[in-house]
Design brief:
This protein is an alpha+beta fold. It has one domain. The strands form two sheets. The protein has a two-stranded antiparallel ribbon.
Length: 90
């Protein structure tokens, strides 16, 4: 039986089985969220603005409420919405 794959870019080595595409995409999205937070921390930015509330990603998401709380406590990064950022008096 021939398996269906989706190719990403011109690189034929990146073949993702059709039944794994959603899981792969979700993993990449979480990785990108983590990288963005890491970059903010590395550059000593203490505010991260996002509309991501982890509604579909669940409790393991970087932006799940418990994880946001941990980021604020451990690293001093406030995760704020656009509206919250606009209310800040700089």
């Amino acid at each position: 039986m021939k398996e269906k794959y989706k190719n990403y870019g011109d690189n034929k080595k990146w073949k993702i089985p059709e039944d794994q595409i959603n899981k792969f995409s979700e993993s990449i999205a979480e990785w990108a969220d983590g990288e963005a937070i890491s970059a903010h921390y590395a550059f000593k930015n203490n505010i991260f603005c996002t509309l991501d509330t982890a509604k579909n990603a669940g409790v393991k998401s970087v932006f799940a409420k418990n994880n946001v709380s941990n980021l604020e406590k451990k690293f001093g990064i406030e995760i704020l919405s656009v509206d919250e950022v606009l209310k800040i008096n700089l």
